[in-house]
Write a structure and sequence with these properties.
The protein is mainly alpha-helical. About 70% of the residues lie in helices and about 0% in strands. The chain is globular.
C-alpha cells in the first residue's frame, strides 16, 4: 500500500479511531471494561499511533508542490507550537463546562483560567498546530492533511457549542459564559504553584516535541 492509497486509508483510520471510541455507548462499554484510567491511556496511545502513521503517510504520498519552501517559513510552526503547548498545558485536566471532556464540577467563573480567552482551548491548540504546519509544507498531501485538521478544529468548536447549549440549556449556557467574560482579561490564577507547574509542563512538552520530531517524523523542525 503506497502513495495516495496509504494516505487516504490512514486518514480514514485516524478519524474512525478518534470518533468511534468517544460515542457514548462505546465509551461506556470500554470504560466499564478497562476503567476510566485504562480507557484514557489506551485512547491516547491509539490516537498518537494513528497520528504518527497519518503524518508519515502524508510524507510518503506523491509530492505535488503548491508553493515553494522558503527559509522564513520554518519559524512559523516553531513560534506557534510554543503557544499551542502553553494553551494545552493550561487546559488539560481543568474543569471546563463549555468544551468536550470538561465538566462543571470545580469550575469557578471568577477564575476561569484559559477558558477566559477560549471556550475550546484544546481545539484552539490543534488549530494552531495544523495551520502553522501548512506554511512550510506547501505540497498537496500536507496541505490536505493540515487543512483538514484546521477545519476539523474550527468546525469542532461550533459542534461542541451546539451540544453544550443543548445539554445545559441555552439560558444557562449564556449566563455561564457571560459570567466568564465578565472576569478580568487576565484572570487571577487558582494557585501560583499550579500556574508555575503548568508553565513548566508546557516548556517540557515543547522541548520534547523538538527532540522527538526528527526521530518520529523524520524531519528536524529547526532551521
Amino acid at each position: 500500500m503506497t502513495g495516495w492509497t496509504e494516505f487516504a486509508f490512514a486518514l480514514i483510520v485516524f478519524f474512525v479511531s478518534h470518533s468511534q471510541p468517544l460515542r457514548p455507548t462505546v465509551r461506556a462499554r470500554l470504560t466499564g471494561w478497562m476503567g476510566r484510567g485504562g480507557f484514557t491511556v489506551s485512547y491516547s496511545i491509539l490516537s498518537l499511533a494513528a497520528l504518527v502513521w497519518l503524518v508519515g503517510a502524508a510524507g510518503r504520498a506523491p509530492y505535488v508542490e503548491l508553493w515553494p519552501r522558503l527559509p522564513w517559513q520554518t519559524h512559523v510552526p516553531l513560534i506557534a507550537m510554543a503557544l499551542a503547548c502553553l494553551i494545552a498545558a493550561f487546559a488539560v485536566a481543568r474543569p471546563n463546562p463549555f468544551s468536550f471532556g470538561g465538566g462543571s464540577e470545580g469550575f469557578d467563573p471568577d477564575r476561569p483560567g484559559i477558558v477566559r480567552w477560549s471556550r475550546h482551548p484544546l481545539l484552539a491548540a490543534i488549530a494552531l498546530w495544523s495551520a502553522s504546519h501548512m506554511v512550510p509544507n506547501g505540497d498537496l498531501a500536507h496541505v490536505l492533511l493540515f487543512g483538514i485538521f484546521a477545519g476539523f478544529a474550527a468546525l469542532g468548536m461550533r459542534i461542541v457549542d451546539r451540544r453544550k447549549r443543548r445539554l445545559l440549556g441555552g439560558a444557562r449556557w449564556k449566563a455561564m459564559w457571560q459570567a466568564v467574560t465578565s472576569s478580568p482579561v487576565i484572570p487571577q490564577p487558582v494557585s501560583v504553584a499550579g500556574m508555575a507547574t503548568r508553565a513548566l509542563a508546557a516548556i517540557a512538552a515543547y522541548v520534547a516535541l523538538l527532540a522527538l520530531h526528527p526521530l518520529v517524523i523524520g524531519v528536524s523542525p529547526l532551521p
